[in-house]
Amino acid sequence: MGNDNTKETVDKLLKSAKKEFTEKGYMKASLRNICKEAGVTTGALYFFFKDKDDLFRGVVGAPMAELRSVIESHMSIEEEDIKNYSPGMNIDLEDDLAAAAEVVKTLYKYKEEFELVISGSQGSSFENAIDDMADLMNNHYTEMFWHMKGYKSKKHMTKEDKFIVHWMSHDQVDIFVHLLTHCPNEKEALKQLKGMFSYITGGWFGVINNA
Amino acid sequence: MGNDNTKETVDKLLKSAKKEFTEKGYMKASLRNICKEAGVTTGALYFFFKDKDDLFRGVVGAPMAELRSVIESHMSIEEEDIKNYSPGMNIDLEDDLAAAAEVVKTLYKYKEEFELVISGSQGSSFENAIDDMADLMNNHYTEMFWHMKGYKSKKHMTKEDKFIVHWMSHDQVDIFVHLLTHCPNEKEALKQLKGMFSYITGGWFGVINNA
Amino acid sequence: MGNDNTKETVDKLLKSAKKEFTEKGYMKASLRNICKEAGVTTGALYFFFKDKDDLFRGVVGAPMAELRSVIESHMSIEEEDIKNYSPGMNIDLEDDLAAAAEVVKTLYKYKEEFELVISGSQGSSFENAIDDMADLMNNHYTEMFWHMKGYKSKKHMTKEDKFIVHWMSHDQVDIFVHLLTHCPNEKEALKQLKGMFSYITGGWFGVINNA
Amino acid sequence: MGNDNTKETVDKLLKSAKKEFTEKGYMKASLRNICKEAGVTTGALYFFFKDKDDLFRGVVGAPMAELRSVIESHMSIEEEDIKNYSPGMNIDLEDDLAAAAEVVKTLYKYKEEFELVISGSQGSSFENAIDDMADLMNNHYTEMFWHMKGYKSKKHMTKEDKFIVHWMSHDQVDIFVHLLTHCPNEKEALKQLKGMFSYITGGWFGVINNA
DNA sequence: GATGAATGAGTGTTCATTCAT
DNA sequence: AATGAATGAACACTCATTCAT
Questions:
Q1: Beta-carbon count within 10 A of C88 CB
Q2: What was the pLDDT predicted at A92?
Q3: Cα Rg of chain C, angstroms
């Protein structure tokens, strides 16, 4: 009972919050403005959200979780593949590209929210979300690396190996960020993704084939 | 004549400001705290600095200017080189690596200040400094690109070409950022720079040799 | 429901504000003092009033609006009368005196507020209120003037005519101001008003009968 | 020795001060701005002027003194005349007009300074200068009044008499203020002065001939 | 005669948050 | 489920003035 009204209030709040956060960034955003724009009192906001950060989470939390799950599921698939890899073998890059495309699709599904996290989350608990994503990928690329490099195990990786893998993880994330922030829509992003793929693949081989 | 005292006050202010800005970021930094820590009144601060942004500039302005000049001088050298380039010819990447090393050296000369710009400048007039740097490099890499690609002129570049060049410019900057924020000192950074170089060179060829 | 408390806070604020504004004038008045004297925090003030100027409006706004409406209603009556005027005819000055008395009564109804506007409003949005009042009267006296002067229409008024009418409008306002600031109460003011009336009537005829 | 430089500094200061005071009014004027615009340090200002108010006096003091002396000398002349006045006699108003013209000339000699006193002196020691001028005239008009009224002495003046004389003194000043602030130059002001004179003379007779 | 550094109290205003109702 | 009043600390910034040199 009253469920409808409740949802309505929360929705108005979230819509207004998204607008304000996007326009001013987390720190400069004013809860007063958000409430005023939503036609709701501050008390109401605090009934539904614990604090400013919680409200921000309300806006970007679900998209971020979905993105994370998309990435994780694709990474586990690729990690299966890589186990069957032996040096000299051709790796089927088509799979990787497809996985990346899947990520891009998710990004455009919640374009505004992700852009908010990328450039307006400083001060909130999402301020390190991009770095966290890179760290998440690091494990995955580490696995790929030592297999492709022909090492017997992860333990044989040098400090330099680890460093470059960490960088490539970051770069992978940056590619997604760049696509999202520079392409007006999903279609365009998917087109440009191919060029990006040439770049990053070239980069990988540059690294793998080096001393 | 008072010169000693004057410089002392400004120095204390700048030192205290650097600390506060680094710890809290531009926006959350408090001028009151900065003055208190410097043992100086707010009025004194405003005698030397126009406003908060001017104080921030006092901390990071000179290093940023120096960096910019280092980058620009190196870019102009490479642009001379590229004019003599003809397709099929081997480009001497050693020069590029040397230029990058020069940049890295400058970065570590003012490590703290650059890290401050990278991660704590939001809200200040330096908040877009990283993007500006990438834009600065874009012109340079555009020149390199069409020469290496064997185009007759810049005009033959497709939308996709421009997009990928723009990305590579960004990525070049990100490499510097990554080195600075992940290597404890210059020596270490210069060592890792080589691996990075393999990566980015591979990336370039991946892009150039593609359809 | 809190109605009592609410009104109480606003009332304390307005009372305290009136005192501070009256003692120091708009510009030198301190919102902090006002809040302290009202036993309220600055935040509370800003819940009820937009800014310093809005608080000032809270004190003098209503009286000013009422005064304006009294003046306007009386002016429209006199303007009807004047339409029936023909040169040589005796004008019934009793009506004018009665209208002026009505204004004086309104002035004393909110004596303190009007005195505040007269001498303490510099810097606020009411700083030109007196001049505005004179301008308001200017239209009215312009009508009276050309009728009494026997002109066929307003268009026949010379530059000198317009100037003197403008002055008389100002002077009419100044008379009210003078009464308010020099008579301790309404009764005394109404008594002195008659002398003032002799003066201004004499002035009018001096002007009308002149070349 | 150094007399030239000194004068130069003071002059720059006064010029800059006049500008700032005129633009912002006494209270909002900033000594810092004045010094900056004059190309001089705050210390220098305080060498020549005791404080903000003293600087303001530096700008408007001399013109005000000159005005006062012009008014006083003319008033003493008229006061001689009035002693020979007997009821029924025609008073030669030409003298009064001439005296007023003299005042107007002085006003336009330092137009800017007087306008500054009129509308920008609040907060300074000149904030009551206009009222003071009216009080100065009050004695004069009091003498005129009881002679013209046919009283045996000042002592026979009623409370109402005194009140109206006080008002007429004020109004005389207001006429000068109005002329100064509404006529672009002396010539124009002298022309309009005649109309004003008809008004004020009519006013006087209205008052004198009344019960 | 003039500098320039420094004071310290003050300004209006905004903020996220709380809580009795 | 929501109101609306209130808190109180914090903010960047400005001011007239002083004084050793």
A1: 6
A2: 65
A3: 21
